Amino acid sequence: MKKYSMETTVGIFVLAGLLCVAYLTVKLGKLEVLGGDRYPLTARFKDVTGLKSGAYVEMAGVRIGRVGGIRLDTKDNMALVTLDIDKGVRLTDDSIASIKTSGLIGDKFVKVSPGGSDEVLGPGGVIVETEASVDLGDLIGKYVFGGVK
Amino acid sequence: MTDAITFLLSPAAFVGRTVLTVVAELGGFCIFLVQGLWRIAIPSPSWRKIVQQVYFIGVKSIFVIVLIGLFTGMVLGLQGYYTLVKFGSEGLLGAAVSLSIIRELGPVLTAIMITGRAGSSMAAEIGIMRISEQIDALWSMGINPMRFLIAPRLAASLICFPLLTAIFDVVGIGGGYLTGVALLGINPGTYFDRIDAAVELTDVSGGFVKSVVFALLVAAISCYQGYFTHARRDGFGAKGVSLATTAAVVFSCVAILVADYVLTSFLL
Predict the structure, then answer these.
(1) Which residues contact B81 (CB under 8 A, 6 or more apart)?
(2) Which residues of A are less than 8 Å from B62 in CB distance?
(3) Residue B233 belongs to what domain range?
(4) Is any Cβ of chain B less than 8 angstroms from the Cβ of A114?
């Protein structure tokens, strides 16, 4: 009886620990265990200053995905951003992706505004129309040093 | 003449002796660690021994880990709130609490608590087995004490530390919720949303890398101190065991904090 209860408690301990590990990695760490509930789109930006992979993609204020990866297109020095969009969200090929800041100094995220075209982007599609991030420092600099008339 | 030179060189001799002792000690420790790890694999110790050690190191530590995790999270929630509210960004409390717990406090505090609870008793237990010649008895019966005593403790530590760290992390985030949301009135949605947005997989995996390294350090240092109680120069018998236990706790804690800094600088 004694031996049995010790093994049981060890088992419960390990299960509870693994449950916490699962919560941390899958829920908070966004480890894609099953995957496949998102499809990738690519957007080309002139400037993605401050955007990080893992940032949210929103449409009309609702989360529809995450930024999967950011790299530089060495041909024309544009930033290539991979957007992992939830399946079931249909984006047309004239959607506009723009980089916004939540609040004044908050995190950057990608906002997608719907277009009116009939062509729906499939996996691997490219969002052509983009708006680069607005650098608050640049704006202030323009104001201070007389760029604004 | 030679006497004078010897006298003049005696500080150098002292430095040299100290360095050699430290190097020999470290070398002995590394050999001990590798032997212990090797004995986990070949021939592996009995499953039953490992389960016993998991019970002792892991299950019996749950209560204290939950308690410490809860209060750490609660105090972080409190401190974080009053700092963040000055900038009007108390919504970031979830991110502050979860990141500091998952990256730093979870692995480090868990390791230090287990050092106090299990590391000290490992050193004392093995130390007493050493001074009462039970380890020699194991040898004479053809049982390798590395396999019989050390390997199960190392294996159990490697299992328990990450699991207890995970429990600490989750309970700590819950503690931050208690003070931040229940007491100070932050929006619960904001709290968890910020955690969700701020925590990345690298933070979580970095925390687990730390806890695995701490597990190795704590278990190996504690067992090493106990195992070589008889080799201590500063005391023998019961005094040796008490010194070994003290040394195990002190060295483990120092090693945890030093390793934490080194690991953090590599992981960031």
Answers:
(1) B90, B93, B179, B180, B184, B186
(2) 13, 16
(3) 2-267
(4) no
